[in-house]
Each structure stands twice: as structure tokens, then as C-alpha cells.
Specification:
The chain is 29% helix and 25% strand. By secondary structure, the protein is α/β, with parallel strands linked by helices. The strands form 6 sheets. The protein has a 9-stranded mixed β-sheet with strand order 2-1-10-9-11-12-13-14-15, sandwiched between helices. Helix 2 crosses helix 3, helix 4 crosses helix 5 and helix 10 packs across helix 11. It starts with 54 loop residues before the first helix and ends in an 8-residue tail after the last helix. It binds adenosine-5'-triphosphate.
Length: 611
């Protein structure tokens, strides 16, 4: 084993190691993979560089810091290569098998993801936050041929592997420790299980370029806030397009150090927070999970060398709500501390983003006051990665409630759909506006609202739902436009998300109400700290607007007070007529509320279709 003192070797593509098992050409029709059946086509795709291929170029540069220590690009690369070798052996050299993996937020996650891709597998990231029934569903639905996990998380997968008769590989922690920087690295001579995967000067790995140009890379499951989670199949091309688009728009470079606190089974944590910096030679400082005190310590670089400080933070609205709570508790009483925080955050942190759920304007304003950062809100989803973003330049227009304009290489349009009167299966589509990074063209008369469903098109758009060809077909309009299921509006040069059409757009007395807009108005109330708005079936109105709120500790609120507060903020038909006060609103790890469940559980209404 010769892993110490590794030389930095740049290998031209033509000299890269190609597994003898993979010297076939893989050219598949887009979308066909969603059925699980590949169909050959003849047109080759542009080449794409899978993320691990860049690692040898960045060599001994630090790529990652986790709770154990620091890892270089080369360290992660070589450990991944060892694991790739084991995976190939277990899968007998087959590619495009699904490998479901459960790793904590640390280097073992990166090593596993890269190793699966080096051996040509489709990764299915699982989360330790999921209950056993969900893990079981993801494993079975993706039809994983192999399960991978670490020692610490093995108990969560062992039973599932056994009951479903699937192979389980528990990754030896020595692989992760081998990738640590030399000052803490373990002695490789004590590691005897690892077989060398080629001479150490041969830093190439993976399959041939054509494979990555035309293969699938990952299945991630949607949150399940509107229906049973679906497996979203993304190709290497999709992931590359999603990364490149953000790298360009947010100017992510090798100088960036991104503070990562997001779950690693959703696009936000995987692509935005982790793959973007690691593609361009930047750094990722990964916490095991979000903790407001730990995030504050990182942002203020408490007990930390300046060279190790983070300069980018990507959060969900709940992250900022928690940070504000901590600030109020610990720092806000001390004027000097307040000034210091403002100064350090404005000078040292270059970018703070929010997404995955609507950012309340009260949070936007409060964070601006504390940190001097007007949060950059963006919109995206599992199927398409990031689509809309506020501008990078903080002095330009970042407005609360708006998610900005299309990201590079992404096209969007807002479409009004209407069911045919004679044949309800026939849907009439009217395009209200259409845009890309160069601008949006409004196609309706001046003053007419551009409210409708958001459609997305581009190289970022996924291949299809895993083995659900009918659902996939339903979610695409002609010419590969993906129907997001979100209602959006283009107004004053920027896009607004009014919510999920199926659960957030309520119909009351003939009016359409955006639950997101009602929530934003109620969250401005000084006694309301959390809120979720749903529609309840009503014989007279079709739906009633119902608000579920959480109040400040010790505060009480009545429906009449909520209605009074809303009077000058909402149209009369959007003012809630039902109020429930809870201690806590159940949200998932990205801060999303499952409104179908909420209607059932809080209001005991079982027919969610009417919501
Ligand atoms: N900035 C934002 N503002 C408002 N909503 C957002 C924003 N960013 C993301 N979202 C919401 O998150 C959704 C994408 O999340 P995800 O891909 O996890 O699917 P989901 O809606 O949670 O799950 P499912 O499709 O199973 O219901 C978007 O469609 C949108 O509704």
C-alpha cells in the first residue's frame, strides 16, 4: 500500500484508465431509462466530466472538512477508487445498477458517491432521518442491487437488506480515515483489507467518456409533500448542467468555502451545497446536521484559523429562523456584539442563499438587519435543479417574496391551462410569458396578470420518474417542457412562486388564493412565529381558508385578531375563516409542510382532493 507522499499527476483524458469491462459504447434515448429499459440511439452526446475526474487536478488542496478532520481532493479520490473496486467486484462488473447508500454528512458520503460513479452505478442517496418504512420504500422502489452504509448507520439498513434479500456492504471506516490530511492520517500499513486499484501514479478512474456522456447518475426521491415520493432520475448531463448553471450565476470558485448543513438526500444539499464547490476546487465545511450555535460559530469563525473560515452559506428558511432565534437569545442585548456581527458577516461572507420553501419577508428583513445580507432566494426542485434565482449582485434588486429570473441555460414559461369543454382530457394551453437568462417576454396585454403553471426546459431537466413512464409522460408537455406543478407569476421583472397548484392554490367562492401569500401576511404578525395555510372543503365556498399558527411563547391569538391583522394585507376572500393554534407545525428536514397530512390530522378531513 503506497498512499503517502502521493505525487500530483495530471492525466490527459486519452490516457485515463478504462476498465476492460466497460469498453462498450452506451448510447441511450433520453427518458427511456425512466422505464428501466434502455433503448439505443445513434446520436452521441457532448462529453461530460463526472465530478471525481476533477479531483486529481486539485490534488492536495483541501476539499472537505467534517467532524473528524480535513480531506484533500486526492485523498477522497483514492479512497473512492478503492471502494469503486469493491463495488465492481460485488456487482460483477455490471453498470447502471442502483446502489442505495446511507451515510452520515461527512467524507464517507463523498467517497461513496464518487466510488459508485467510478464504477458506473446509479446512486440512490438515503437519509438517516428517514424512518425504516421510508428507507424500505426507497430501496424497493429503486430496486437497488446493493446497499452501502457505514458502521454507525448499519443497524438502520441491516434488517432491510436481510428481509429484501439485497447485498449490504458496510464500508470500513479506514477508507475514510485514509483520505484524511497527512497530519491525522492513519498508518496505511495497518489497513490490510484494501486491494490496490492500480499503481498510485495512475490517478485516473472511472469508465470511458462516452459512458458518462449518456448515462444516468442518481435517483433522488421527492419529499412527498403532494403525493407518494417519486424517484427522480438524473443523468450526468443533468447534474453537470445544474452545477455549471449555479457556478456561473453565483460565481462559485476555488476560493469559496461553503458551510454545509443540509440533508444529503435532496438536490439542495447534494448539488448546490456539495457538488458546486467540489466541482470547481472549492471547499465544503460539512456539519453533521444543522445546529444554530455551530453555524454561528462557523460564520463568526470562533476559535478558527482565518484560512479555514467559510464564506458562503446556503440554507432553508427554517435555518435562518433558527439563527435569528439564537441571535435574539445570545447576542442581541449587547450593542458591541451586534455591531461586530454586522461587520464580520458583511465583510467575510460573500453569499447567503435561501430556498426549498418560501422565505417569509419578516425573516428576509430580520436577517438583513442582523447581518447586512439581503438573502438571495432561489427556486428549484428535484426534477430540474435550480431554475430561478435572484441576482448575485446584492446591490441589485433582491426583493422578499420574489425568486428572481431564469438561471443560465434554463428556459421557463408560465402557462394558463384550461380543460376542453367537450373533452376534459383535452387541455388548452395559453403561454402568458416566456423567458431565459436574457429576459422574459410577456405575451398578454398590459395589466393582465401572468399567473399560471410554471414550465421548465433545458439540459437541467431530469430524465423521468424511475419506472413510472405514465406519470413521466403526464408531467411533460410537448417539446420536453416539464410542468413543475407550481403556480407562478411574473411581475415587475421577476418571478414569484404562489405555491404548489394542488395544495397551495385554494379556490374559495370563485377566487383563487395563494396559501403562500396568506402565510406571508400572517407571519408579519408580531405574535405569530410559524404558520401554514390550507383549504378545507366547504359546501358554500368550495373551500374555506384555514390557518394553522404557532404563537410566541406565552402569547395567545384569536381568529378575530388574525382577521383584523389581515384586513389591510389581504383581499377579503383570502382572509382566514378558520384558525388552529398548535405548539409546533410539523416540517420535514427542508422546512416543508405536508399539507395533505395536515388537513387530515389537524382538521380530521380525509378527502384531501378538495384541498
Ligand atoms: N424559493 C422557493 N419558494 C417557494 N417554494 C419553493 C422554493 N424553492 C422550492 N420550493 C418548493 O419546493 C418544491 C420542490 O421540492 P421537492 O423537489 O423536494 O418536491 P416536493 O414538492 O417537496 O415533493 P413532492 O413532489 O413529492 O410533493 C417546489 O416545487 C416548490 O413548491
Amino acid at each position: 500500500m503506497v498512499l503517502l507522499g502521493r505525487p500530483l499527476v495530471l492525466v490527459p483524458k486519452s490516457l485515463r484508465y478504462i476498465s476492460p469491462l466497460t469498453c462498450r459504447l452506451h448510447i441511450y434515448a433520453p427518458c427511456a431509462a425512466s422505464t428501466g429499459v434502455k433503448t439505443k440511439t445513434t446520436s452521441p452526446k457532448p462529453s461530460v466530466t463526472p465530478i471525481f475526474r476533477n479531483a486529481p487536478i486539485y490534488g492536495e488542496k483541501t476539499a472537505l472538512r467534517d467532524r473528524h478532520g480535513d480531506y484533500t481532493y486526492m485523498g477522497l479520490f483514492l479512497s473512492s477508487r478503492q471502494l469503486a473496486h469493491q463495488i465492481s467486484e460485488l456487482l460483477k462488473g455490471k453498470e447502471q445498477e442502483r446502489v442505495a447508500f446511507l451515510c452520515p454528512n461527512d467524507a464517507s458520503y463523498v467517497i461513496t458517491q464518487w466510488a459508485c460513479w467510478m464504477s458506473g452505478q446509479i446512486v440512490v442517496p438515503l437519509s438517516p432521518l428517514h424512518p425504516e418504512a421510508s428507507l424500505q420504500y426507497f430501496v424497493n422502489d429503486s430496486d437497488a442491487s446493493l446497499l452501502l452504509t457505514t458502521n454507525e448507520l448499519a443497524p438502520q439498513l441491516a434488517g432491510i437488506a436481510q428481509s429484501s434479500g439485497r447485498k449490504l456492504l458496510v464500508i470500513d471506516d479506514a477508507l475514510r480515515r485514509l483520505a484524511l490530511k497527512p497530519d491525522v492520517k492513519i498508518d496505511p500499513s495497518q489497513v490490510d483489507f484494501i486491494e490496490p486499484a492500480g499503481p498510485v501514479t495512475d490517478v485516473a478512474a472511472g469508465l470511458e467518456d462516452e459512458f458518462y456522456a449518456d448515462s444516468d447518475a442518481m435517483i433522488i426521491y421527492t419529499s412527498g409533500t403532494t403525493s407518494t415520493p417519486k424517484g427522480v432520475l438524473l443523468s450526468y448531463q443533468n447534474l453537470d448542467a445544474q452545477v455549471q448553471s449555479l457556478v456561473e450565476a453565483w460565481n462559485i470558485t476555488g476560493k469559496d468555502n461553503v458551510l454545509h448543513t443540509l440533508p444529503l438526500h435532496h438536490i439542495h444539499g447534494i448539488v448546490n451545497g456539495m457538488m458546486c464547490p467540489l466541482t470547481v476546487g472549492g471547499r465544503c465545511t460539512m456539519l453533521p446536521s444543522f445546529s444554530s450555535s455551530k453555524v454561528w460559530a462557523q460564520l463568526l469563525a470562533i476559535r478558527m484559523k482565518a484560512a479555514d473560515r467559510v464564506n458562503v452559506f446556503m440554507g432553508v428558511p427554517t435555518s435562518y429562523i433558527k439563527l435569528i432565534e439564537e441571535y435574539e437569545l445570545i447576542f442581541s442585548k449587547n450593542e458591541k456584539m451586534r455591531e461586530y456581527i454586522q461587520k464580520i458577516l458583511s465583510e467575510k461572507i460573500r453569499l447567503m442563499t435561501s430556498g426549498s420553501a418560501p422565505l417569509p419577508s419578516s425573516v428576509f428583513e430580520a436577517w438583513d438587519k442582523i447581518s447586512g445580507h439581503r438573502l438571495l432566494e432561489r427556486f428549484g426542485m428535484s426534477e430540474v435543479g435550480m431554475v430561478l434565482s435572484n441576482p448575485l449582485n446584492p446591490t441589485s434588486d433582491r426583493r422578499p417574496g420574489f425568486v428572481g429570473t431564469p438561471l443560465p441555460s434554463t428556459k421557463v414559461k408560465i402557462v394558463r391551462t384550461e380543460k376542453g369543454q367537450e373533452n376534459p382530457n383535452e387541455v388548452k394551453e395559453e403561454v402568458l410569458c416566456e423567458g431565459d437568462e436574457n429576459g422574459t417576454k410577456v405575451l398578454v396585454n398590459d395589466g393582465e396578470p401572468t399567473v399560471g403553471q410554471l414550465y421548465v426546459k433545458g439540459p437541467n431537466v431530469f430524465q423521468g420518474y424511475w419506472r413510472k413512464p405514465e406519470t413521466t409522460a403526464k408531467e411533460f408537455a410537448a417539446d420536453r417542457w416539464f410542468k413543475t406543478g407550481d403556480t407562478a407569476q411574473f411581475v415587475d421583472g421577476s418571478y414569484k412562486i404562489l405555491g404548489r397548484t394542488s395544495v397551495d392554490i385554494l379556490k374559495t367562492g370563485g377566487y383563487k388564493v395563494s396559501a403562500v401569500e396568506v402565510e406571508a401576511a400572517l407571519l408579519g404578525h408580531p405574535d405569530i412565529i410559524d404558520c401554514s395555510v390550507v383549504g378545507l372543503p366547504d359546501a358554500t365556498w368550495g373551500q374555506k381558508v384555514a390557518a394553522v399558527v404557532v404563537t410566541q411563547p406565552g402569547a395567545e391569538i384569536l381568529l378575530s385578531q388574525v382577521r383584523e391583522w389581515s384586513r389591510d394585507k389581504l383581499p377579503p376572500y383570502a382572509i382566514p375563516t378558520v384558525l388552529r393554534v398548535l405548539d409546533k407545525i410539523p416540517r420535514n428536514s427542508l422546512g416543508k409542510v405536508n399539507k395533505v397530512n395536515m388537513v387530515k390530522e389537524v382538521f380530521q378531513v380525509s378527502d384531501h382532493k378538495s384541498t
